[in-house]
Design brief:
This protein is mainly α. It has eleven helices and two strands; from the N terminus they run H-E-H-H-H-H-H-H-H-H-H-E-H. It has one domain. Strands 1-2 form a two-stranded antiparallel ribbon. The two termini are about 30 Å apart.
C-alpha cells in the first residue's frame, strides 16, 4: 500500500468528456465480446458451468466476478460519486441537495449488490413462482421512486427525460429481463431465446447506467459550467485491486476444485 501512496496520486482531475468517451468505448467492447464468445460457443455447448470455459467465464454476462460484472459495478460507483458530487455542489450554492446525496447512497448500495450479488443471496429464502429478491427489492425501488418524484419534477426538461429513459432501461434489465431469465432457466445454452434474454438483461443494465452517467455529466456541464472533475483516484485504485484479488481467488477456487 505504501508503494501505491507514492506512485498513485490521492486525487486526480479528469475531463468529463474523456470519462464519458472511455466508458462508452469499454461498454461497446464488452457488448461485442459477450456476443462473440456466445456465438463461438453456441453450437459447442448445451450447458454452461463456470470454471470450464475460461473465455466464456471472462466475458459472458450471466456470470459474476468477470469483466462485465466489474464494469457494471464500476458504472454504478461512478454514478454514486457523480450524484454526491452534484449534491455537494448544490449544497455549497444553498440549493436543494438532499435528494442528490440520498440517490448517491442508493447507487453505492447498488454497486455493492452488483459485485457481491446480495440480491441473489435472498433467493435462498422460500419463494413461489418468482425469485425471492423481487419481493424485497421491488417495494424498496417503489419507495425510492415515490420519494424522488419532487426531485424529478424539478430537473431541467432534457435531464428529466434522460433520467427517466436511463431508469427505465436499467430497471428493465435489472428486474424484467432478470425475472425472464430465471423463469426460463431450464433453457439450454444453445437456445436463441435464452441468449437474447441474457443479452437484454445485462445489456439494458449497462446501457441504462451508461446513459445516466452521460445525463449526470451533462447536468454538471450545464449547471456548474465545469468540464473537469476531481476524483479520489487512489480510492478507485484500492477498490480495483480488491476486486481483482477477489476475482482471482474466485476463479482459482473453481478451476482447481
Amino acid at each position: 500500500m505504501q508503494v501505491i501512496k507514492i506512485i498513485v496520486p490521492k486525487i486526480k482531475t479528469l475531463s468529463l468528456t474523456n470519462i464519458k468517451s472511455n466508458l462508452f468505448k469499454i461498454m461497446l467492447f464488452l457488448w461485442t465480446a459477450h456476443i462473440s464468445v456466445s456465438v463461438f460457443y453456441f453450437t459447442r455447448l448445451t450447458e454452461i458451468n463456470f470454471g470450464k470455459t475460461p473465455l466464456l467465464d471472462l466475458f459472458f454476462f450471466e456470470f459474476e466476478k468477470n469483466l462485465p460484472s466489474f464494469f457494471s459495478a464500476f458504472l454504478l460507483l461512478v454514478i454514486a460519486y457523480l450524484l454526491l458530487y452534484i449534491g455537494n455542489k448544490m449544497k455549497a450554492k444553498s440549493l436543494p441537495h438532499k435528494a442528490w446525496k440520498g440517490l448517491g447512497y442508493v447507487f453505492y448500495f447498488l454497486m455493492c449488490d452488483e459485485w457481491f450479488s446480495i440480491h441473489e443471496g435472498l433467493n435462498r429464502l422460500p419463494s413461489s413462482y418468482f425469485p425471492a429478491w423481487i419481493f424485497v427489492y421491488v417495494p424498496l425501488a417503489l419507495i425510492v421512486f415515490l420519494c424522488s418524484i419532487n426531485f424529478l419534477r424539478n430537473l431541467p426538461k432534457k435531464i428529466f427525460w434522460l433520467t427517466l429513459i436511463s431508469g427505465f432501461l436499467y430497471v428493465s434489465g435489472a428486474v424484467l429481463f432478470e425475472v425472464f431469465s430465471s423463469l426460463f432457466a431450464q433453457f439450454q445454452f444453445d437456445d436463441l431465446t435464452y441468449q437474447l434474454i441474457i443479452f437484454l438483461e445485462d445489456g439494458c443494465e449497462i446501457g441504462g447506467a451508461m446513459l445516466f452517467v452521460y445525463t449526470l455529466i451533462r447536468f454538471i456541464k450545464v449547471k456548474f459550467n465545469e468540464t473537469k472533475i476531481t476524483l479520489p483516484y487512489r480510492n478507485f485504485i484500492y477498490l480495483f485491486i480488491f476486486c481483482t484479488i477477489e476475482s482471482i481467488l474466485t476463479y482459482t477456487t473453481f478451476y482447481f476444485n
